[in-house]
Every structure is written in structure tokens, then in C-alpha cells.
From TrEMBL:
Keywords: Oxidoreductase. GO terms for molecular function: oxidoreductase activity. Pfam families: adh_short. This is Unannotated protein. Coiled coil: none annotated. It comes from freshwater metagenome.
Length: 257
């Protein structure tokens, strides 16, 4: 799928991996729609990116908000690219804590909702819109989706039961969605990042960050958001990669804790 000349919708596009992806796809010639619940930052990023960038405020958990973002995307040209970055951990905890108290069901549900339901919502509504268009190329390709999981979906640490389960569901969704959407020529791939240097780490203690950084075999640092964006761009343009979950992690494998 070509990037230049097509419309890309980036959920969570006002910060971190989504912001870097919006900037990168825009630099490659895409028209970008940044969809994020953070209105202030979203407008600011839109202004910085400039022409061919639009911001839509709202939540991936809302059908109306997501449809509105997709309507904007389709009004701007051929809506072919979804990069679903909105997500994250809404809280942590063990299945039962040291005193035997069970994990908060609310935190677990919220994390599943944000990551799994939010990703699926933007995927299903985007796929419906993309499927209504004519194919873009001689493979019959109509669109491409890049979702965002985490290596915690493979090797979640103690205390990550909610986040790890949510990201594992996105990993599991990838093949099924790619199979479902093969009939309409939409590819679905997922990126599973390790530790990437974004605002998501702002609230984490410096010691945790240093500890994790030291555990990355090579290069010994957090990933740059731009490195995620470059991988997303490759998954968009390489037509033969489908139903793939790609780790980007400097070879780190999370320890149990
Ligand atoms: N940073 C990392 O180390 C890392 C590692 C693995 C996976 N990830 C995943 O990458 C994705 C992006 O993370 P990031 O580090 O860029 O975080 P970030 O906090 O910098 O950006 C996330 C963005 O998503 C937006 N968002 C949150 N909930 C939303 C909602 N309901 N609707 C619309 N927008 C919403 C936020 O406003 C924010 O702008 C997340 O899914 C996260 O789980 C990040």
C-alpha cells in the first residue's frame, strides 16, 4: 500500500508512538488524521505537522467518536491506513496481592476495554469504510491496519495481568482479523514494542526505567518512537506481510519481575 497520497488515521496520535507515526507518515506524503482523547495536545500536534494533518478529538471506546474520525478520514481522500496506537496500562497488580486480596475487577476491565475493545472498535469500523472503496492496486488491496500490542502480551511480568492479557488479545486478534478481512483485501499486522521512550514512562520511577534499560541486550536504551514509526511504515508498504506480529525490542525478554 502506498503511503503518499492516501489517508492514514492514527489513534492515540497525539503522543508517543502514535505521534511519531503521524509525523512519519505525513513526511512520506500521507494525509493524516490524528484521533486522540487529548484535545489540547492533539490540536498542538496538528498545528506543528501543518498542511495535510487534521485532529479529531474523541475516544476509541466510543462508536460515535470513532465513526466521526473515520468520516473525516474518508472525506479527505482514499482512507487506506489505520495505525491503532491508543492504549496503555490503566493500573497494575497481581492476581491476588501479598495479603491475598483479589485484583481489582474494575482495573482489569478498564485495561481490557481500552486496549482490546478500543483497538477492535477502530479496526472494525475502519475495515467497513475501507471495504467500501475500490481496490488500490493489482493485488486487490483496499487497506492496511497496524495494531499495537506489547511484548507484555508474550511475557507479561508479575503485576501485569491486566495489561499483558489485553495485549495478548490484540496479538490473538491479528491472525483472525487478517483472515476475516482477506475477502476484502485488507491486511492486518501488529507491532509488539518492548520499552519505548514515550510519555507513558513519565510517571514511572527513574530506577525502574534505568533497570529496564540495563536489561535491553542491544542497543542498550529505550526504543525511539521514530523506530516504531519506521516499522509501521514498512508494514504498510510491504504487501506480502499479513497477519504478522513483529517485536521491536532490542532483544529484551521481560523477566518474571
Ligand atoms: N511506550 C512503551 O514502552 C510501550 C511499550 C509497549 C507497548 N506500548 C503501547 O503503545 C501504545 C502507545 O503508547 P505510548 O507509549 O505512545 O503512550 P502515550 O501515553 O505517549 O500515548 C498514548 C496516546 O493514546 C491516547 N489515548 C488513550 N486512551 C485513548 C482513548 N480511549 N481514545 C483515544 N485516544 C486515547 C492518549 O491521550 C495518548 O495521546 C499503547 O497501546 C501502549 O500500550 C507502549
Amino acid at each position: 500500500m502506498l503511503i503518499a497520497g492516501n489517508v492514514a488515521l492514527i489513534t492515540g496520535g497525539a503522543s508517543g508512538l502514535g505521534e511519531a507515526t503521524a509525523r512519519h507518515l505525513h513526511a512520506q506524503g500521507a494525509t493524516v488524521v490524528i484521533f486522540d482523547r487529548d484535545e489540547d495536545r492533539g490540536h498542538e500536534i496538528m498545528r506543528q505537522v501543518g498542511e495535510r494533518a487534521t485532529f479529531v478529538g474523541g475516544s476509541v471506546l466510543s462508536e460515535d467518536d470513532t465513526n466521526q474520525a473515520i468520516e473525516v478520514a474518508t472525506s479527505l481522500g482514499a482512507y487506506r491506513i489505520l495505525v491503532a496506537c491508543a492504549g496503555g496500562a490503566t493500573g497494575g497488580g497481581r492476581t491476588i496481592d501479598r495479603n491475598g486480596a483479589p485484583h481489582s475487577l474494575e482495573v482489569f476491565s478498564d485495561t481490557i476495554n481500552l486496549n482490546v475493545v478500543g483497538t477492535f472498535n477502530s479496526l472494525r469500523l475502519s475495515a467497513a469504510a475501507m471495504s467500501a472503496q475500490e481496490p488500490a492496486n493489482d493485488d486487490g488491496e483496499r487497506g492496511v491496519v497496524v495494531a499495537t500490542a506489547s511484548i507484555a502480551g508474550f511475557e507479561g511480568q508479575i503485576g501485569q495481568i491486566a495489561y499483558g492479557s489485553a495485549k495478548a488479545a490484540i496479538i490473538g486478534m491479528t491472525l483472525i482479523a487478517a483472515r476475516d478481512l482477506s475477502a476484502v483485501g485488507i491486511r492486518v499486522n501488529t507491532i509488539a514494542p518492548g520499552t519505548m521512550g514515550t510519555r507513558a514512562w513519565d510517571k514511572a520511577p527513574a530506577s525502574l526505567r534505568e533497570n529496564l534499560e540495563a536489561k535491553v541486550p542491544f542497543p542498550k536504551r529505550f526504543g525511539h518512537p521514530e523506530e516504531f514509526a519506521e516499522l509501521a511504515a514498512h508494514l504498510i508498504t510491504n504487501r506480502y506481510i499479513n497477519a504478522q506480529v513483529v517485536r521491536i525490542d532490542g532483544a529484551i525478554r521481560f523477566d518474571p519481575k
